[in-house]
Design goal:
With 330 residues, the chain is of the alpha+beta class. It has helices at 27-38, 68-73, 110-119, 141-146, 189-199, 225-230, 233-237, 257-264, 308-315; strands spanning 7-10, 15-21, 43-45, 54-61, 76-84, 86-88, 97-100, 122-126, 135-136, 139-140, 156-169, 175-183, 204-214, 217-218, 223-224, 251-255, 269-270, 276-283, 288-296, 299-305, 326-329.
Length: 330
């Protein structure tokens, strides 16, 4: 006999929760868990983080989902440890070892490590791994890989903004390299670790990966899933920050009540603003985020707008634990 299903009263939640994603959870698993804990109606994450990786995962709720693309495009920083001397089918610890080579630690000098870091800095080309979610003819590459099928993958351009490479040991005491890397979207850290290992002449595969920053949002502002589960609903809601936290690199523009109403209707407004590719637009009386846009030749042009209902709900504050919402059976 099936256990009774849980009935959840969903309610509007608007904002961003910075989660320190635990190991073993996919990004979507973590999102759905936090969505359930908050009883939120609408949610989305800002780009996947592998189950074997931990660290910063911004989760967007309600109106904040309209700005999640900004984090998808943002530069990200990772700490990775790659074991030297062995390559695997997946370029990480999940795969089977396919080749082992001796590691000549005497040859891996600081100068050699610096040269390798320089080699993989700036704009580079990466061949995506077969064990990835990229699709070919509507089918994920990892599905082909599981069937033993190798698909030709064109190299893709990515940018390594900063890279530091140093010798260390992994958790099992094997010789390894530690990579501290800030990179563009689309970068595969597994592939980078494997390529660094090849450049050092012995191969490597990833044993540890932690994201420490995404678009200026770091671990210091994160909460763990374990901590959230231990909190009551009121405490959990205190970790939901306003949607505009995603807009810290946008130029703020504040409109009068008259112009705010027209901007929210999708109309362009004229003013003495300098050209700007990204502006966060606020209304006055009361002060509230209206959406984002850009300024060109003195015109403020809307790009993404909040709805009047979303603005009202944000102004009313985070929901109370007793607030009603949509009844949903899980």
């Amino acid at each position: 006999m099936n256990a009774p299903r849980t009935r959840v009263q969903r309610r509007p939640v608007h904002g961003v929760l910075l989660l320190d994603k635990p190991l073993g959870f996919s990004s979507n698993d973590a999102l759905q868990k936090v969505k359930w804990l908050l009883r939120a109606e609408k949610a989305g994450h800002t780009g996947t983080l592998d189950p074997l990786a931990s660290g910063v995962l911004p989760l967007c709720f309600g109106a904040a989902t309209k700005f999640s693309q900004l984090q998808l495009e943002a530069a990200k920083t990772y700490i990775a440890i790659a074991r030297l001397g062995a390559t695997t089918t997946t370029a990480d610890a999940e795969g089977e070892i396919v080749r082992e080579r001796p590691v000549d630690l005497a040859a891996i000098t600081p100068e050699k490590l610096q040269a390798v870091a320089q080699q993989f800095s700036g704009p580079i080309l990466q061949v995506p791994p077969m064990h990835s979610a990229l699709k070919k003819d509507g089918k994920a590459l990892y599905e082909y890989a599981r069937e033993g099928i190798e698909i030709e993958r064109p190299a893709r351009a990515v940018t390594i903004h900063a890279l530091d490479v140093s010798l260390c040991e992994d958790a099992d005491g094997f010789a390894a390299v530690k990579l501290v890397v800030t990179c563009s979207k689309g970068t595969y850290i597994r592939t980078l670790g494997e390529d660094v290992g090849e450049a050092l002449g012995c191969g490597a595969h990833l044993r540890f990966l932690r994201r420490t920053d995404t678009g200026g949002l770091g671990l210091a502002g994160c909460v763990t899933l374990e901590a959230l589960e231990a909190m009551d609903e009121e405490q959990r809601l205190l970790h939901v920050q306003p949607p505009q936290m995603l807009l810290h690199e946008h130029t703020p523009v504040t409109l009068t009540e008259y112009d705010a109403g027209r901007f929210l209707s999708g109309m362009r407004r004229r003013g003495d603003w300098p050209d700007a590719s990204a502006v966060a637009v606020y209304g006055t009386e009361p002060h509230a985020l209206l959406g984002v846009g850009h300024v060109l030749a003195g015109e403020l042009i809307p790009d993404r707008l909040l709805s009047p209902l979303e603005i009202q709900q944000i102004l009313e504050g985070t929901p109370r634990p007793t607030d009603r919402g949509i009844l949903e059976t899980l």
